[in-house]
């Protein structure tokens, strides 16, 4: 849906998201779904993060579900990088060419998925490397509205 290739080198995901069009669209109410982020993101009404200190069985179930779902997304990135190995190695040379290459790889990967192209066996083996442990990054103070919405979600779906 959205790919950002604005910065050279390693930039934290939360910064990219903070400045991307998808975030603006969520804030404008264009989507009714929920995004999942790790603890490097603020908890908002549309982006849920794991609970840092779950205290109830419901909160534990929420965190386990959150981690399993995020791992699925991480495996998708792993498949993309296995299909286009240049994404694993990093790119050198002209920044504009690198940006276009990344976007082209994303488009071609989505086309392969739409066409139900089978992944080659090397991809299936390598995607199991992702852990089910939470990824804890620097803490960003969560928003009150985000916490309230996450609490309502947990009470509704994890009882």
Automatic annotation (TrEMBL):
Localization: Nucleus
GO CC annotations, alphabetized: nucleus
Domain of life: Eukaryota
Main location as per UniProt: nucleus
PANTHER family given in the database record: DDE TNP4 DOMAIN-CONTAINING PROTEIN-RELATED, PTHR22930
Family per similarity comment: Belongs to the HARBI1 family.
Protein name: DDE Tnp4 domain-containing protein
Annotated source species: Parnassius mnemosyne
């Amino acid at each position: 849906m959205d790919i950002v290739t604005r910065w050279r080198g390693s930039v934290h995901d939360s910064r990219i998201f903070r400045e991307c069009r998808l975030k603006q669209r969520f804030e404008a109410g264009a989507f009714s779904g929920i995004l999942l982020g790790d603890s490097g993101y603020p908890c908002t009404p549309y982006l849920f993060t794991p609970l840092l200190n779950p205290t109830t069985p419901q909160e534990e179930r929420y965190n386990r579900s959150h981690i399993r779902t995020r791992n699925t997304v991480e495996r998708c990135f792993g498949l993309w990088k296995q299909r286009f190995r240049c994404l694993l190695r990093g790119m050198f040379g002209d920044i504009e060419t690198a940006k276009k290459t990344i976007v082209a790889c994303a488009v071609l990967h989505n086309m392969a998925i739409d066409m139900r192209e089978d992944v080659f066996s090397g991809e299936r083996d390598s995607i199991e490397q992702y852990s089910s442990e939470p990824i804890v990054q620097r803490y960003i103070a969560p928003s009150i509205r985000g916490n309230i919405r996450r609490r309502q979600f947990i009470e509704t779906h994890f009882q």
